[in-house]
Amino acid sequence: MKHTHLFDSPGPRGLRLIRMATAVWVAVLLLIVAYVVWRLDARGQLAPGKWLPFVTNVKLLKFLGEGLLQTLSASSVALVFSLLLGIVLAVGRALGHRLLSLAIAAYVQVFRGIPVLLNMLFLFLGVPLVLRLNISAYSVVVIALVLYNSAVIAEIVRAGIAALPSGQRSASLALGFSEFQTLKYILVPQAVRLMIPALVSQFIIIIKDSALGFIVGFHELTAKAQNAALQLSNPLQTYIVIGIVYVAINLLVAHISNWIANRKTNTAG
Amino acid sequence: MSDACSVPRMGHDDMSDIMVELRGVDKWYGDFHVLKNINLAIDRGQVVVVCGPSGSGKSTLCRTINRLESIDQGSIVIDGRVLPSEGRALRELRANVGMVFQSFNLFSHLTVIENITLAPRKLRGVAKEQARQHALALLDSVGIASQADKYPAQLSGGQQQRAAIARALAMRPEVILFDEPTSALDPEMVGEVLEVMTKLAEEGMTMLVVTHEMGFARKVADRVLFMDEGEIVEDRSPSDFFNQPETDRARAFLSRIL
Fold first, then answer.
1. Which residues, 6 or more positions from A38, have their beta carbon under 8 angstroms from its beta carbon?
2. What is the least distance, in Å, from the CA of B7 to any CA of chain A?
3. What are phi and psi of B87, to 5 degrees?
4. What value of ipTM does the predicted structure carry?
5. How far apart are the first and last CA of chain A?
6. Could you report the per-residue pLDDT of A158-216, keeping only the tens digit for each?
7. Which positions in chain B touch A176 (Cβ < 8 Å)?
8. End-to-end alpha-carbon separation of chain B, Å?
9. pTM of this structure
10. Does A266 contact chain B (CB < 8 Å)?
11. Which of B162, B168, B243 is nearest to B206 (CA)?
């Protein structure tokens, strides 16, 4: 990673400009932070009593921890099934049968277009009515996330396959592999590797979107925080704390996948 | 002439044994008539070099023989069987016809040895250890045994192309198509690839080679086909072709490249 910039290395005048812009940007940022802190303090929002429970109140931490586990569990399950279904859909589309492609394209367009929140409501209201089945809030959230994210991942993997040099497919066919075997052994493994950054972004979106589950009574991190905030009467502090938790989780996810991706590309030269 | 025609060959004794035959093959890209009434028979064990200006249809001709490109008219017969247009029969035929590409096309997510063993293992059910032993022997014969566990990106162009030849050989094909195998190589690496191809030819492999390497054509080929504007204009022994080309088009081409 020697040359990471897309442009010419800046000359002396460019460097001065960059330094000045950086200084201005940092100054503005500091001013905004200072103003926010000052206003919060003026309104008594920085009082230790409002923040200390997040360190000392074991019951509260346990309560929020349960929510965090639910968030991680639903997101991970949704990720696995979205990935599997997304790859199946992308493969189905790449096989080139017209009717199958059309059906998959329709699926992608519909479920990529519907807000996840609406998906959850449809499932929550519709499944008991149509199938006469009781469906748990957890299942509603996971299925709604899978419907949306499998559609997005199908497109990501399809783009990855399209981005591969056409010679990879020719070489595989020339050896005697079928179209399906070519996708399975040659194209999809490379496309998924190529698309790891996009797939990581999608996992982060899944984690964040799981918070929408509160609408169907799913007790994940955000819903738990809402409950806790009502009892402690410190909603702002609670939401700031769980906001930080979300960012921390997503940083961790990004780091782990970077590490995996780097290991892969290092061994692949 | 002590040229290529008289080079003794092993592995074939019946010269009327036709390996690849094209009969009246035509192909269009839209309005562009890329192959015009191609008639061609390649005997088992023969090495046929195809040359001609760019856009003359030589690569397309090469790619029709294992149906990477379809044809619009005529028929192609390989080892006595008409080239099937789809399905298992086509795949089995392709497995029997090796192909080496200009841009190597090694599978970039697999090591060299995995590139070579994948098809025998998945398509022929060869056991892992057996496939590995065969692959190592092939790598040894193309001179890159020490590169077995590297990824394609870690190899030089010449090494990649030799690995690609080993990959084609792993399926024990009866004929190998070479589509400009040295055109993407740095000049100093052309020799090592041609050397491997020459060795293959001496072992009696049936080969169709699209190339501009006229030294290779002179030394190794049994026949040289000269193509221009989708037609086979000349089909001669190398010595005849290089010493007394029959057509103005061939003369003009040779004067440009020699």
1. none
2. 30
3. 70, -165
4. 0.90
5. 13
6. 999 999 999 999 999 999 999 999 999 999 999 998 888 888 899 999 999 999 999 99
7. 91-92, 94-96, 119, 123, 171
8. 20
9. 0.84
10. no
11. B168
